[in-house]
Structure prediction request, 217 residues.
Amino acid sequence: MAFPKLEKSDDTPYTNQYLDECAELNEALEDGASLAVEGSKCSFVEHTGNLWEAKEEVKVHVVGSDFVMGVGVARDYAELAGRPDVEPNEAGVGEVATQDSDAIGGTIWHLVTKEKSHYKIYKKSEPFVINVKKSLKKLAEELKKEELEEVAMSFLCSSSDKMNRVWILKQLYDELKDVNIKVHFYVGAVRCSLQFQGTLLQLPHLFKAQVQGLIQF
Prediction:
């Protein structure tokens, strides 16, 4: 299924910046550049497997404020552990609703990145980009506050939400580069490459990773 292409506009400065940054990332990666920052304390790890079977205590995924949880990782959670005890719109964009789950094992962080679960970047790009940036910043603040050394998460906002996965990773990396934390990304049954504007990119390419049964950068 083809989705509408985002276009720049005088009325959408955040969308324009998003598109420019995606283009810059694409060019850098095609040139073989690394996105790693020398001296960074954080590390990213990609695993083959189900997020909800991860061994890490805290597991993060994204939801809409309405908590419909009808697709993707959120739907998988609802099917495995039942719906969280959160009323629709109780948690606003940028907030994290936490929940302990015996069914999954650990604490679930439901990161609210949009008002409605059906919102996609190509429908209303400007508020979508603003809200995602706000939410990722808030997530980083919460991770710092809790002083977590490890956390598990899905590839946030880049599957059903249709945002650029590399851009999302770069936003989170920039927020966490001074934090001593290992972020574990779980990608389902098959470890995936990144589809970045028509170019397939393995995750090690992004941060000069080493492959040792899993992918680290």
Notes: The mean pLDDT is 82. The longest strand covers residues 106-114. The helical segments are 13-30, 72-81, 125-146, 165-176.
